[in-house]
Amino acid sequence: MRILILGAAGMVGRRLIAALCAEGSMEGQAITAIDAFDVVAADLPPCDGVTINSTAGDIADRATVEALVAERPEVIFHLAAIVSGEAEADFEKGYRINLDGMHHLLEAIRQTGGAYRPRLVFTSSIAVFGSPFEAQITDTFLCAPLTSYGTQKAICELLLSDYTRKGFVDGVAIRLPTIVVRPGKPNKAASSFFSGIIREPLAGHEAVLPVDDEVRHWVASPAAAVGFLLHAATMDTDMLGHRRALSMPGLSVTIAEMIEALREVAGEEVVARIRREPDATIEKIVAGWPRDFDARRATEAGFTADTDFASIIRAHIADEAARGA
Amino acid sequence: MRILILGAAGMVGRRLIAALCAEGSMEGQAITAIDAFDVVAADLPPCDGVTINSTAGDIADRATVEALVAERPEVIFHLAAIVSGEAEADFEKGYRINLDGMHHLLEAIRQTGGAYRPRLVFTSSIAVFGSPFEAQITDTFLCAPLTSYGTQKAICELLLSDYTRKGFVDGVAIRLPTIVVRPGKPNKAASSFFSGIIREPLAGHEAVLPVDDEVRHWVASPAAAVGFLLHAATMDTDMLGHRRALSMPGLSVTIAEMIEALREVAGEEVVARIRREPDATIEKIVAGWPRDFDARRATEAGFTADTDFASIIRAHIADEAARGA
């Protein structure tokens, strides 16, 4: 079995590849090759029995995407995206990477034709929703994004469902909660601080909190995200019917609750490294984001979420220790 | 004031132009020119004081659309589309005309830049919704289309809202109910029979009814559609916020109720010309279409619907008489 991963060099992509290597198979079929593609080639550890082809290119280039699909991967994970802050700042780049890239991928699959109908797992986002909201966003609530990033994700979901309905692909779009705690450095996503206020103080650094403590948000751990991807790759998709986009289950927490969990796990000294510095631009973007979901379809389809925020922090600490080792 | 109409040769486009000519102005501003564009040049009657430029071309061609926008029309009506049945049969053509055409239009407007920010009225469709439905579809129900046509319209709505939010255009997407009674010949739309079973018997011809009498549908008259377009072109759009797509008000009627109204207006002899001939393909498409709406936002925004189906039939008879005269 051959697997293609677009956006392989990112945090979720690398974790996904590690999980696939550790497992060595999917649905009883041995994984023989993983094509790991990103805008920069991912430097990946070797993997027993699995050929890893790490390559770089631009998914907005149609020929590049066609060449990747020509290898006929049975499963494709499309994780590549320009993040929300950057897509808002650079309108053209956001549409080129986030929309044209997906369209090229779907077209390359369709034009392969014959019996080729890969499972395509696409990471969408809760940014497809925009306020005003229901108290809990249900599975039949409209997509009315308030960012170009959210618009691009919502359009990709519609394309994925239509190409699936026509029988060209077997698609599942999973709307990820904000992933917390992201390791590494802050990125250009407007949501970057949700991880920053946990990760940076734990590492001994100051972290800026640009929004109010009462802001509520919908989060999932990196491990939960990888679990969603693997389940989406192997689940029975018939139960989804023609609605191939699913809001993933998550945890609804306030900033105050996140900080309280950090205090519980790491103590007051660590919490003291959070500095409050309101940022009107980020506050405005975050105010348009969802806070809570009734993710019933995904739960019924077997997707499972984190149970509490303190466990997410402890898992992050364990990951960092393993990385340091 | 200059007005651009894409899809000017269609039934709604021609009626819109007639209404604009009869009025001669919009919001107190004299209409000086109407650029009437379609895939074939519309043969339009002259219009006192208004220059009508009737041209033909392909909206999937970017340069063609750029040339139309270069005239800097203050109001643009985008009515051009491949209809549902044809977009389902020809996947590539549907995306090219219904999606690329809109994207070219939005890009041409954005790239004009400066203070240019025209009002863009886009005719979307209730085909953006797919079953299973709520009993009455509300303004916050998800777009989950079951046709490529509906998918293309839903994507255009998302693009229109995002380009509007970014300040490039002042867009309003109006989701038209099925227009009944369409004059002229049956077309390739799967919904064509909704008009056919009224129009053809009244003209002395047999009409085929491919679905069950209990099928319920959401309809509006041609006159109501033109009213929606004119209101969308002149309304205060601030009240719409960032959600620029609106389900238009309409009439929810069953086939049986339509036939009963035809009997009331035209008698049993006319009704007898309807021949029942079930068509599984059309039944399947129509089963995925909405039947009833709570079109609250549009009603609050001042859009008004037809009041009863017999009046729609009588208006059609009067229109046909005027056309014959």
Tell me what you see in this structure:
The structure is a homodimer of 325-residue chains. A 7-stranded parallel beta sheet of chain A has the order 5-4-1-6-7-8-12. A 3-stranded mixed beta sheet of chain A has the order 9-11-13. Chain A has 12 helices and 14 strands. In chain A, helix 4 packs parallel to helix 5 and helix 8 packs across helix 12 (309-324). Chain A has a domain at 2-177 and 221-249 and 292-305: Rossmann fold, CATH 3.40.50. Chain A has 325 residues and is of the alpha/beta class. The interface between A and B is medium-sized, with 23 and 23 residues. Chains A, B: Residues 3-224 form the NAD-dependent epimerase/dehydratase domain. Chains A, B: One of its GO terms (molecular function) is oxidoreductase activity. Chains A, B: Keywords: Carbohydrate metabolism, NADP.
SSE layout and pairing:
Two copies of one chain form a homodimer.
Chain A: E1 2-6, H1 11-23, E2 25-26, E3 29-30, E4 33-38, E5 51-56, H2 62-69, E6 75-78, H3 84-89, H4 91-112, E7 119-125, H5 148-165, E8 170-176, E9 178-179, H6 192-202, E10 207-209, E11 216-220, H7 222-234, E12 245-247, E13 251-254, H8 255-266, H9 268-271, E14 274-276, H10 280-287, H11 296-300, H12 309-324
What oligomeric state is this?
homodimer
Structural class of chain A: alpha/beta
Which CATH architecture of one domain in chain A would you pick? 3-Layer(aba) Sandwich
Question: First CA to last CA of chain A: what distance?
Answer: 32 Å
Q: Under CATH, the topology of one domain in chain A is which?
A: Rossmann fold
What is the residue-averaged pLDDT of chain A?
95
Per CATH, the superfamily of one domain in chain A is NAD(P)-binding Rossmann-like Domain
Say how many strands of chain A there are: 14
* String of helices and strands of chain A: EHEEEEHEHHEHEEHEEHEEHHEHHH
Question: Under the CATH scheme, which class of one domain in chain A?
Answer: Alpha Beta
Low-pLDDT segments of chain A: none
Order the strands across the largest sheet of chain A as they lie in space. 5-4-1-6-7-8-12
- Protein chain pair with the most extensive contact, residues per chain: A-B, 23 and 23 residues
What would the principal axes of the Cα set say about the shape of chain A? globular
